[in-house]
Amino acid sequence: MSAHPCLDPSVVRWSVPAAERGGRPVLLLLHGYGSDEHDLFGLVPYLPDGFVIASVRAPLAPPWPMPGASWYPIEGLDGRDPREITRAAHAVLAFVQDAVGPAPVGLLGFSQGGAVALQTLRADPDAVSFAVVLAGYAPGGEMPGDAVLAERRPPVFWGRGAADDVIPAHAVDQTAQWLPGHSRLSGRVYPGLTHSISQDELDDVRAFLDARLAEREG
């Protein structure tokens, strides 16, 4: 088995053709469990067009009959192995190096993709400039970049629904304890929202991403 699974560049959905990507910041979309690269790509009209957006497909197939792809195995609601999430994070980093280039990227992930987004930031803080975590969480354990993140405090947006019953409470609590000490945290808990994304949340994500573009230009 390889050190990490590989992302397939042939199934990536890009918001603009290759000729229009030069010199522009890249936002990578990481979908949730049982989904694929087409799912979060539907958010593109709601996101700032200052970013080149790439929606990738997770490298694993979940157990039948679950459709789509997954970033790491889930054995029951509590079976989320940080080592498997780290393997997925290294797959994302390899894709960034091979298909995006040397400039830091931003990550936007939903559910599993949100956990992988944070783990990728923790694995290599030099490769990721910010993260948007929607209905996701921070995996447990220590990562090589944690001390760097505690010093740098990169921007992170964490949004979740008050009625989300998919992410275990202990994972939410763990994230609430970890993020403030390792990021410049913004975010919101949305009343009545389940394990999904609302228009209010998209508006907040748009404002967060606009701020990242303004920082870049300033």
From TrEMBL:
InterPro entries per record: AB_hydrolase_fold, LYPA1-2/EST-like, PLipase/COase/thioEstase
Domain called Phospholipase/carboxylesterase/thioesterase: residue spans: 19-211
UniProt-listed SUPFAM superfamilies: alpha/beta-Hydrolases (SSF53474)
Keywords per UniProt: Hydrolase
Pfam families: Abhydrolase_2
UniProt record similarity statement: Belongs to the AB hydrolase superfamily. AB hydrolase 2 family.
Protein name: Phospholipase/carboxylesterase
